[in-house]
Structure of Trichome birefringence-like N-terminal domain-containing protein:
Amino acid sequence: MLLLYSHLYIVFICWVDIQTGAALESSSKPPIYRNKDISISPEDKEVVNGQEEKAFSLVDQLDPEKSSPGIWNSDSNVITPSDEKKGDPINVPKEESRDIRVPEGKSSSKKAEDVDLVVAAPISSVNKSSPLEGKEYKNSTISAGNQACNYAIGKWVEDDRRPLYSGFECKQWLSPMWACRLTQRTDFAYEKFQWQPKNCKMDEFTGSNFLRRMQDKTLAFIGDSLGRQQFQSLMCMITGGKESPDVTSVGWKYGLVKARGALRPDGWAYWFPGTNTTILYYWSASLCDLEPLNSTNPTTDYAMHLDRPPAFLRRFLNKFDVLVLNTGHHWNRGKLKANRWVMHVGGVPNTDSKIAEIGGAKNLTIHSIVKWVDSQLPKYPSLKAFYRTISPRHFFNGDWNTGGSCDNTTPLSDGKEVLKDESLDPVAVAAVKGTRVKLLDITASSQLRDEGHISRYSIRATPGMQDCLHWCLPGIPDMWNEILFAQL
Ligand SMILES: *[C@@H]1O[C@H](CO)[C@@H](O)[C@H](O)[C@H]1NC(C)=O
Ligand SMILES: *[C@@H]1O[C@H](CO)[C@@H](O)[C@H](O)[C@H]1NC(C)=O
Ligand SMILES: *[C@@H]1O[C@H](CO)[C@@H](O)[C@H](O)[C@H]1NC(C)=O
Ligand SMILES: *[C@@H]1O[C@H](CO)[C@@H](O)[C@H](O)[C@H]1NC(C)=O
Ligand SMILES: *[C@@H]1O[C@H](CO)[C@@H](O)[C@H](O)[C@H]1NC(C)=O
């Protein structure tokens, strides 16, 4: 009956004019980038999806994917700029991922514009029965039920059936840096909770239920490392963390292959042959298109087209049945500067001072991508698009670089319930309003789980630095997938 849906759910994308697609396809071939000025430290290795990849020590310090401070460092970061690829992802040689050396960050004093999670003044709740949605949902009892409830409201309850997979297992999908069972951490109470929405019926998540529901379908996560966490979590949840030799890597179908010299591919795609289900993740930290300004210059600046969705999304949207978008933690001045991203709007450098502020740029991008996805839904009536709200950080007594920590080990010491019908991510709420893109609102519920972060146990964390942004897996992102499943 899900097939009856005629509307799309979308999470979050840059707005792009219809004509942009054609313009992009005709743009010049991307340059080759190499990690040439980054030293390799042989002991820095990471096993990703069964493949050992050499990691670069400098990258390790900066790269959000490397369990190092980079990702929650609000002044510096590394992003593999892959969105600018224009060529055929299968036949055209890809540029290698380019990791960028970042200058020593300034202090974290510019908080006002760099905060990743802004808990803004209360906003009115999303109207779940807008005329548009009412029409779209009329013929589906399931979706009508979903619309009547808000998955963001509810409580955490202890549940012996959690976690849904073991952090010792799931080596096929789970990055060791996020598998807290593999670290010195000894408290695992945080694994034992399930989210119970107040007014929504949730089917029990099982791998077979999920796959049955996703028969002949493709689910795509597009976003930053928190999106990658959700992707890995889902792969582990579906397989129960068990070795699954039948699940086939099909990244090549989407151009997701590791280029020579690259640290990793821009994403991963896996196919479950039993149900012909594909799950994929594509790395796009900013959810907008990145285009080298001088394609023959390896140290070129990038046009960061705030109002244009990533090329990958534009190219492959027609292949997706479910789309989950997210962004958030890469939006600060330091990261933009470090990545040499220059804001563009309408194809030209931005001159609007309101947009030039980080908050304004992020807002424009989120609104743009949601609007664009919404505009595509009539073409792809079976697509369900979600925008996932911001994942909260929990640095106490400092920030990531000033001794901030998340040492609490007692689950839910700050309460277990979310009662307010207003999201903690007003930007996302405003962006999806009036569109058929659905909000996957995980912010308030995750906000209660400060004990679930990697904390000090990150495998290669710099002593003194804690990761209070990413989550241990199994853990809180599993819940994001449970409420996603409930809405499919
Ligand atoms: C929600 O939309 C319905 C239908 O358009 C309208 O009757 C109702 O007043 C709206 N509620 C809010 C809180 O805006
Ligand atoms: C929705 O249901 C009504 C009444 O059952 C039917 O007339 C209409 O064609 C259906 N619309 C769609 C899009 O299936
Ligand atoms: C397998 O699933 C894809 C979508 O993920 C679909 O396009 C294709 O038609 C399916 N193949 C079969 C044989 O049903
Ligand atoms: C592009 O970069 C190359 C190599 O650095 C340089 O020679 C060329 O002048 C640049 N082109 C423009 C238009 O700036
Ligand atoms: C966010 O962007 C939208 C669309 O451009 C705009 O209407 C809205 O006013 C912006 N909100 C803020 C807080 O800047």
Notes: The chain has 14 helices and 18 strands. Residues 67 and 458 are 6 Å apart (CA to CA).
